[in-house]
Amino acid sequence: MIWLSWRQLRTQAAVVLTALAALAITLAATRGQLSHLAASAGEGFLDAAGARRADSWLYLVTLVVVLVTPGVLGVFWGAPLVARELEAGTHRLAWTQSVTRTRWLATRLGVSTLAAAAAAGVLGQVARWWCAPIDTAVRAGHGNGGLLSQPRMSPVIFDARGLVPLGYAAFAVVLGVTVGMLVRRTVPAMALTLAVYVAVQIAVPLLVRPHLASPSHATSAITADTLHGFRGSGPPDAGGRIDALMVDVTAADAAGAWMLSSRTVDAAGKVVSPLPSTLADCLGVPDRAVGPDPVDPAAGGVRAGGLPPRGERVVAGGPAPAERQAGTREKACFAAIAQRGWQQKVTYHPDSHYWPLQGAETGLYLALTTLLAALCFWRIRRLS
Amino acid sequence: MNTPNAPTDGAGTTARTRGRAILRAAATGTPDPPPGLDAAADTDDTDTDTVDADGRDVALRARGLGKRYRGRWALSQCDLDIPAGRVVGLVGPNGAGKSTLLNLAVGMLTPTAGSVRVLGGRPGSGAAQLAKVGFVAQDTPTYPRLSVAEHLRLGAALNPGWDDAVARERVERLGLDPAARAGTLSGGQRAQLALTLGVAKRPRLLVLDEPVASLDPLARREFLADLMTAVAEHELSVLMSSHLVSDLERVCDHLVVLVASRVRVAGDIDRLLATHHRLTGPRRDPATLPADQQVITASHTDRQSTLLVRTDGPVHDPAWTRGQPSLEDLVLAYMRPTAPETAPAGRPTLEALR
Fold first, then answer.
1. CA A292 to CA A314: how far, in whole Å?
2. In the structure, what pLDDT confidence band is assigned to residue A234 with cuts at 50, 70 and 90?
3. Same domain, B285 and B155
4. Which has the minimum average pLDDT: A203-217, A223-237, B44-58, B63-77?
5. What is the pLDDT of residues B87-112, one digit of tens each?
6. In this structure, what is the dihedral angle of CA atoms B257, B263, B265, B267, given to the nearest 10 degrees?
7. Is residue B2 part of a domain?
8. Is residue B347 one of the residues assigned to a domain?
9. pLDDT tens-digit profile of A203-219?
10. Of B195, B190, B196, B218, which Cα lies nearest the Cα of B208?
11. What range defines the domain where residue B100 resides?
12. Same domain, B221 and B294
């Protein structure tokens, strides 16, 4: 039975494993240079690595490959596993041999799921190992805002290395099998598997992952040194609305952290919203600079809320905060903030939560996998 | 048997011996499963699951068997005994429930109502039950990308009773290239491969669901001849469906006509032929026939009546010209929707079904 499972997986497995092995060998071969560069370049490592096209390119390829591999396995290994049998009628051959269909499914599902989980698990570990110098530098706050400076806690990078790809792959394959058993046709099952998998992959970082470990909180004073912009709508001087301030996080573990939310709170800890439009004074002349969301190396994290909604705009201070000429209006503005006791409160997952979150999320996906597998075993007894 | 015109044939002997042993002994050896272990979904758990009222071995027994798909009954209220040790043909119009019945018998489907027992066990209830029953499904599915040799390996891996010598001998005799992928085989060769899997598994009952439906006449004949060889060699009970009576006549010694889930007639073919007569004579009301002559179909012109009657005794009335109906005539007559007297006068009785 294991022979049959392997025989039916062989071609797809050969394609996928060859591609992954090629990537793994390339990574293994280039890792030495990266470590060497990290040791020699010091704080300038991320700049130096980012400037080397091969490293940037390999970083990006690894990121994409690890991200898409579980989905590909679910679509090409999982979805056709039962659906193709049902479509071609070969299930009538397979299920009338002297092996119960439960055992048939257990073996085929087991072989495919384990192979997929192993492939994705190894890939995740290789990616983590290759990216370790980069992650160390980002954690140390050496980020320069470039591609390599995304912290490993940020939602996309989190998915692309470490333990979680193993859970994703197991989930994707069993999801594919389940969908195939329900839809009964291969191509629609593949499409639906992809759609559901992508939806889950988007929903989990947004809705579930922040709660898999209890996040940290920190407050920062709002001063000329830390305030570097605000987000709002309408004219920034009067009549406009300010929704949020952009304040540098001063907490020690902010570098490499995943920012969940950043809110202005008053002395009692209550969220101040909306903020008075007079706060525009804090940034000096209102119309000075209107532009896209500035990249902020010091905050290092991904801002909660992401891009501003349509119709809003982001105003950033022109000169860096430290160099800003503190005019009278600015001084008065910051004095008003201090007098009201307003502070910026941030909720975030520091880098130290990386492995707890990886473990919890892998466990979550494996639990979902188990549920789907139970559904498969229930369902196969009713197929014909 | 709740159908009035479903004669079962009491005599176990058949003149159509095809050089094979009647498999009584094999079927009698089956012990009934302990009641506690096999209590699922059976309404008529009796110790007569393997023997019918006349003491004959039963390969398959259905009682009130029904299967519903999406609100439509593909088979309903089916009562049926299939004797063991025979090559049994199951014939009936499309939609009669033949395929559903066979799929229920091999455990591909589970009954919605009633029960079915095959060789004393519930179909698909476990590996042991699966091993007892071989199945060649409709359109004889095989894995297109596996080679012939890999199909044999598949059979060996999935069947503890696999007879590799038989499988190899058959493949060689049929001229199948072991390295050829099943997808490159002709329909006939694929059917032969599927039959090889079914036979080399060494089941006690081999179920074939329209195995020759998609084959050309030559391939069909070869397949059936090969099936008969296998049956003779391995002492199999066979249950085969087809809507081609001529195919069944060539290989079967027992026939079951299934129409709209009901058994219209069942019996050994020799006996069916011996007890059915086509009578042609002056126009006459069929009700005036002797009591032992059952009219199956009747057609009348102004002056003449043509009847198909079933009787165990001889037909003495000199007014009749007696003819021997072919098996096909007989089957088609039973497949008619009943009520022969409503048939338009002047048209041949056995024409234009459906």
1. 6
2. low
3. no
4. B44-58
5. 999 998 888 889 999 999 999 999 99
6. 90
7. no
8. no
9. 999 999 999 999 999 98
10. B195
11. 24-260
12. no
Token reading at B98:
């033949």
B-chain residues near A89 (CB < 8 A): 137-139, 141
Q: Please report, for chain A, how many H helices and E strands are present, in that order.
A: 11, 6
List Cβ neighbours of A71 (8 Å cut-off, separation of 6 or more).
A168, A172, A194, A197, A198, A201
Facing A97 at nearest CB: one of B110, B138, B201? B201
- B14, part of any domain: no
Same-domain pairing of B186 and B111:
yes
The yes-or-no verdict on residue A16 having pLDDT over 80 is yes
Q: Are B296 and B312 in contact (CB under 8 A)?
A: no
> Which of B52, B12, B44 is CA-nearest to residue B28?
B52
Check residue B261 and give left, alpha or beta (phi > 0: left; psi -120 to 50: alpha). left
Q: Which residues of A touch B133 (CB under 8 A)?
A: 96
My answer on whether B91 and B235 are in the same domain is yes
Of the candidates A94, A100, A384, the beta carbon closest to that of B127 is on: A100
In a domain? residue B211: yes
Split into its structural domains, chain B has a count of: 2
> Residue A271 has what DSSP assignment?
B
Alpha carbons A289 and B156: distance in angstroms, whole number: 77
pLDDT of A311 strictly over 70: no
The answer on B302 and B236 residing in a single domain is no
- For residues B38 and B163, membership in a common domain is answered with yes
B310 and B219, same structural domain?
no
pLDDT at A246: 83
Flag whether pLDDT at B113 surpasses 50.
yes
Residue A131 has a CB neighbour count (10 Å cut-off) of: 25
**CA–CA gap between residue A92 and residue A248 (Å, rounded):** 65
Q: The CATH number of the domain where B99 resides is what?
A: 3.40.50.300
> Looking at this predicted complex, what is its ipTM?
0.78
Residue B141 with chain A: CB contacts under 8 Å: 88-90, 92-93
Residues A93, B141: C-beta atoms closer than 8 Å: yes
Structure tokens that stand for B222 in this block: 């070869």
- Amino acid B76 reads S
Q: Are residues B310 and B178 in the same domain?
A: no
